Predict the 3D structure of the following.
Amino acid sequence: MQDRKKKESERRSTTGVNIQFLNTFFITITAIVFCFTLIISNTVNNRFHAVENAIDKFIICQQCSELIEESANYLTDQARLFVVTHKTDYAKAYLNEINMEKRQQKALERLRTVCSEKDIAMQRLKIALEQGQSLITMELYAMRLAYKVIGKDDIPEQIRSIQIRDLDENVPLEKLNEIAITNLFGEGYLIYKTRINNNCRITISSIEQQIKDELNLNSTELGSNIKRLRVLFLILLVVNAILFISFAYLVIFPLEKFKTSIENDEKLNIIGSIECKHLAESYNEIYELKAQNEKSLLKKAEYDGLTGILNRRAFDQICTTSAEKRQPVALLLIDMDNFKHINDNYGHAGGDTALKELSRILTETFRNEDYVARIGGDEFAAILPNCPAIAANTIKEKIASVNEKLANIKDNIKPVSVSVGVAFSECGFSEELFKNADKALYVVKEKGKRGCEVYDTSFGAG
């Protein structure tokens, strides 16, 4: 319980980059940048519309101005042609223009769709129309005089209604015709005509300047907004690059490492984001618990439950490994003497004590790299790796020492001794090696037990 609390405390104290926080942070930054991008894009769109509207306004104003000037010139031409030629078709065309076509009024109405009454273009064109109305008055009067000169009765009502001035009433017809021509070609008429044309040109110039100013302003704003958009896109690019690199470094790379470690059955390194670190810590805890369980199971599977030394299964595995390595090895088959007698006199508890004591003494007597195993009830074996035949006397001395120690074991259990058969091989374990050691053990027992014999070919096939 305390270990679990300690591990939980260590896990809480683990420091690192929180990938969830990092994702939230970058998503927030991206959202903010995206909002600014939308705002600036909308501003850019508005600026484009402003430029488009300004250009449309310029085109309409130019067309209206040209239409007013064109209409005024047309009326002048028709009036002049009539007073010079006295052809009534020109008079009819003139009246059709001012009563039916009404191009000047239409131009003014169209202009109102894009200009306010305070707009300089509107003011200039209205002045031009007022001056044009004065010209129409002069032109209609000249045409009235011309009708009087030609003496026709079918005078259009709009012209007939014009009163001839008293000054011109009694003038001879030839002189009256000159007055009509002078009214349309004289200096006063030309001054009005010039003013109308100038006002139309001034209107166009003012509109051009206004459009130019608006375009300059909008171009500056567009340039600034485009720069801002570039900066925002660069920020988005950097943010995404940082997010990708961070994710790769904090998540993908650690997961690849984790995968390799898991495949190699290794503990995980505590790397990456805090989530990956917690994952690694949790895995390592499970790994350690699994290792402990496996170790416990392995111990139960490979070690004798009573004596604590290797069991028959482990002994067989060691023999197999030795056979594969084909290195010099010595095999000792060890039998406890008089084990039935010990059980009969001291009970099974006494027999167990004798077995434990023998296991302890054997383990203490041989090297750390040697393997001591219990392979049956009172049968033991020892495998001594890298042990040549010249070590035979040393082994005999060790067995003699074992028997001496067994004479004074725990609980004063007597008599306890061992019989040992030894065989050597230069090529690792084999069935022949086991048989040879068994033959040597048989010889010891034939001689009265409590001893050690090394296999010799003179033992025969026994």
